[in-house]
Amino acid sequence: MKILITGGAGFLGQQLARALLDRGSLRLAGGEAKVDRIVCFDQGAGALQDARVEYRTGDIADPATVRGLIDRDTAVVVHLAAVVSGGAEADFDLGMRVNLDGTRLLLDACRTAGHQPRVLFTSSIAVFGGDLPAVVTDATTPTPQGSYGIQKLVGELLVADYSRKGYIDGRAVRVPTVVVRPGAPNAAASGFASGIIREPLAGVAAILPVEPATKMWVASPRAVVGMFLHALELSPQDWGWNRSINLPGLVVSMEEELAALREVGGDAAVALVRHQPDEKVLKLVRTWAANFDTARALAMGFRADPDFATIVRAYIEDNPTAIKLPGVRRSA
Amino acid sequence: MKILITGGAGFLGQQLARALLDRGSLRLAGGEAKVDRIVCFDQGAGALQDARVEYRTGDIADPATVRGLIDRDTAVVVHLAAVVSGGAEADFDLGMRVNLDGTRLLLDACRTAGHQPRVLFTSSIAVFGGDLPAVVTDATTPTPQGSYGIQKLVGELLVADYSRKGYIDGRAVRVPTVVVRPGAPNAAASGFASGIIREPLAGVAAILPVEPATKMWVASPRAVVGMFLHALELSPQDWGWNRSINLPGLVVSMEEELAALREVGGDAAVALVRHQPDEKVLKLVRTWAANFDTARALAMGFRADPDFATIVRAYIEDNPTAIKLPGVRRSA
Ligand SMILES: NC(=O)c1ccc[n+]([C@@H]2O[C@H](COP(=O)([O-])OP(=O)(O)OC[C@H]3O[C@@H](n4cnc5c(N)ncnc54)[C@H](O)[C@@H]3O)[C@@H](O)[C@H]2O)c1
Ligand SMILES: NC(=O)c1ccc[n+]([C@@H]2O[C@H](COP(=O)([O-])OP(=O)(O)OC[C@H]3O[C@@H](n4cnc5c(N)ncnc54)[C@H](O)[C@@H]3O)[C@@H](O)[C@H]2O)c1
Questions:
Q1: Helix axes A308-318, A254-270, angle to 10 degrees
Q2: Mind telling me how many Å the CA of A141 is from chain B's nearest CA?
Q3: For the whole model, what pTM was predicted?
Q4: pLDDT tens digits for A105-131?
Q5: Domains defined for chain A, CATH in brackets
Q6: Measured on CA atoms in the order A235, A240, A244, A247, is the torsion positive or negative?
Q7: Is A104 within 8 Å of A158 (Cβ atoms)?
Q8: Which of A101, A137, A154 to mutate to test binding with chain B, by most B CBs within 10 Å of its CB?
Q9: Which residues pair with residue A246 across a beta bridge?
């Protein structure tokens, strides 16, 4: 079986490819399907090298390119390629082109292939915004307050309709903010939630642009990749007509993040974080949902991280070369 | 002031143009704005003739055409051009092209014009479907079960985001099934709700393809056009960030429709309606929402018809030449 990962050279794309290689197979309709080949489509190649991984570069919004991405062997498509929140807000046309046109082209390519590929669409909790209840439930109406959230929600609707029509077997997961994101900061407005852990552990200063009491809904890369695999392995019957779901996560305040940082890195680590409010970030963050009741996802078997300390420890374990602060505790 | 009506040669487009001419002005931000010119854009011309009405023909999904539709004088745009429910379900690509691409092109033309035109988007209660509560409220999540509903909901989301970005001053109304629709039946799956009144009054047989107890959420053309004007005259502050609204209407069962028909046309009229269940129509109708609590719209001043008998009498008054059954009572 062939698996296509768009955005396959990105953060989650690389982690997912690694996890698929480690697993070696996926439980699909016809039983265990062997992972013979992973096509990672992106603007450039990724670091992960393996005989089963093939990099293809191009633009997800180019019709001819996207038509060539899927053939009869492509049983599974994971659509990660996207312009993230800050980027889509700053460049409206780019966001529409990549997030909306790109998604539609990919779904059309799946439809043209004709064998109803299983498609995982990675939406975001940014579909929620505006006047939200204290706890967002499966019944809360998504009312995005940013172009990124709008484009993700439109993607979900298309996935639902293409699935209903029998063009694809689609499923869309609304991903919490993934923390701790390794590497350089990206254009996501939520980046500070990773930055205040990642930078101090690297011995570098970080800025907290929001109140320490600010809460966020987060999940670790490990948990998210695990939930991607679970979303793919659930049957169409498990999903039913409702193909969108809020993924489980953890509520964490920035204070709690700093406490977890102190646990592994001591006062020296926390001293590297400076609180410097940024009105632009604050304005956006205030419209975000921080607490969820994900009853449906839990009933369907999705599982998040047990606590934030586990997330930090997993980051240290998975990114040994990024840890440069002296004296960081590497295990509990 | 210039007003653009897309789908302006259609049923509601013609009624709206007539109402705008009769009114002569609209209460906009700068006070009463005189209706100097109405541009009715459609695939063909309409019957209404007036010195202030200009017909332009073309395809709403053609970029060059749509770019030419809006200039600095176009203060108001009402977007009615659409492939209706049955049509969008039967021809997926046509629905996507007209309902999705067409809407986006129009919004982009408004954005390019640069003066933030006031845009009314006509959505539909077909955005609701699936496992619905007995009464749909302002908090009910739209989960469309047809391509038409999906495309309308995507249109709403784009209107919301273009408004938030300041590209347009948009508002979207979810229109109940408009009854009684005059003239020939169209491709809307809900057509029978008009047909079982219209055809008998014309002395023609009609088919009721659903159970007589089937309920629908309806409004008269007069009420709907009145609510379009109201939606346009409300200020951006009245709307706030939530630019979509469920319009008030009436719950009516097909039995109640037949009772109203008997009142004006007697047993002879009702005898022309034959109950002949159609599984395809039944399947669709079962997913529709029939009862709404439209608290927000009522608070914003939207008003529907008082009862179904009033709707039938208005139809008879407005369409005298379509009434051919002998002995029809023309007033209460
Ligand atoms: N990381 C999170 O916190 C988070 C939260 C919610 C949702 N998501 C979603 O998960 C997906 C993956 O996120 P990530 O964190 O790995 O982001 P990422 O930015 O690391 O990866 C996205 C990839 O898409 C690629 N891409 C962008 N434009 C492209 C184009 N025009 N053509 C081809 N490729 C293009 C980028 O090169 C990048 O490698 C995204 O869709 C994102 O919206 C992520
Ligand atoms: N009538 C209802 O019960 C009802 C209910 C809910 C929503 N609506 C919406 O209200 C609007 C008007 O409805 P209506 O009942 O007047 O329908 P209608 O079919 O009479 O009018 C729609 C018009 O759009 C035009 N059109 C279609 N494709 C076009 C294209 N490619 N380019 C240019 N014009 C095109 C048609 O020629 C037609 O005149 C529609 O958007 C409809 O979805 C109607």
A1: 50
A2: 5
A3: 0.97
A4: 999 999 999 999 999 999 999 999 988
A5: 2-176+219-246 (3.40.50.720), 192-216+250-292+301-322 (3.90.25.10)
A6: negative
A7: yes
A8: A154
A9: A174
